[in-house]
Amino acid sequence: MNESFLQQDLQELEANSMRRHLRTVETSQGRQIVIDGKTVLNFCSNNYLGLADDEDIQEAAMAALRRYGYGSGASRLICGNM
User: Fold this and answer.
1) pLDDT tens digits for 21-71?
2) What pLDDT does residue 34 have?
3) What is the C-alpha to C-alpha distance for residues 62 and 60, in angstroms, rounded to an integer?
4) Is the pTM of this model over 0.85?
5) Which of 14, 63, 37 is nearest to 6 (CA)?
6) Distance CA 42, CA 29 (A)
7) How far is CA 18 from CA 12, 14, 21, 32, 76, in A?
8) Cα–Cα distance between 13 and 6 in angstroms, integer?
9) How far apart are CA 21 and CA 57, in angstroms?
């Protein structure tokens, strides 16, 4: 593959503000997160309601971990439902 061709494509994307950049989220996932020092609304997390930060839910999760442990399993059809 021709490297200059790829480099040219990357430069074109950059010139058109279309080159993607990975952003670092500086806080835990929640309704609001901090990216590049700026607080923004987070619509792409499974924690959009902020429930992962709820102390009652955290305690219930820890109790479940102590009782049932943690690990991945096979599909329901193979190992059954829990």
Assistant:
1) 888 899 888 888 999 899 999 888 777 777 888 899 999 999 999 999 887
2) 94
3) 5
4) no
5) 14
6) 8
7) 8, 6, 9, 25, 42
8) 11
9) 34
Judged against a pLDDT cut of 70, whether residue 1 lies above it is answered with no
DSSP state of 81: -
Both structure tokens of 70: 């943690």
DSSP string, 5-74: HHHHHHHHHHHTT-------B-S-SSSEEEETTEEEE--SSTTTT-GGG-HHHHHHHHHHHHHH------
Confidence (pLDDT) at 67: 95
Q: With 90 as the cut, is the pLDDT of residue 12 above it?
A: yes
* Integer Cα distance of 1 and 11 in angstroms: 17
CB 24 within 8 A of CB 40: no
Query: Would you state the structure tokens that stand for residue 16, as one six-digit string?
Result: 């058109």
